Amino acid sequence: xxxxxxxxxxxxxxxxxxxxxxxxxxxxxxxxxxxxxxxxxxxxxxxxxxxxxxxxxxxxxxxxxxxxxxxxxxxxxxxxxxxxxxxxxxxxxxxxxxxxxxxxxxxxxxxxxxxxxxxxxxxxxxxxxxxxxxxxxxxxxxx
Length: 143
Hints:
- The protein is built from five helices and seven strands.
- By secondary structure, it is an alpha+beta fold.
- The protein has one domain (2-141): 3-Layer(aba) Sandwich (Aminopeptidase), CATH 3.40.630.30.
- A hairpin with a 2-residue loop joins strand 2 and strand 3 (61-70).
- It is globular, with a radius of gyration of 14 Å.
């Protein structure tokens, strides 16, 4: 069973998110592909009030996260631990997140080579808005 638990300000959640964020494949498909230091991550994590992060759980284990940055429209991003990729966890957790948060509209920017994330947003009814360099900008609007 896939679950979503709001991340708290603890070092445990902060370090879990940083570990996944700095994983090689996650960095490859991120707009900022540099390794994030624990000091910079802690500053961002503790001081950014315009975001929410949910820990994705699968079989009672932490396996990834979904982040929502609240700007003019919510902007979503996510990452799954390498061991749990290819199990449709991202697809189902995104669907659950949209429902849980009652998201009516949001966006996501995905590297054009990140096939699993592209499939994931298409299966969740996101539509392609535009291409921006090697990133594809998608939007979601609830019917």
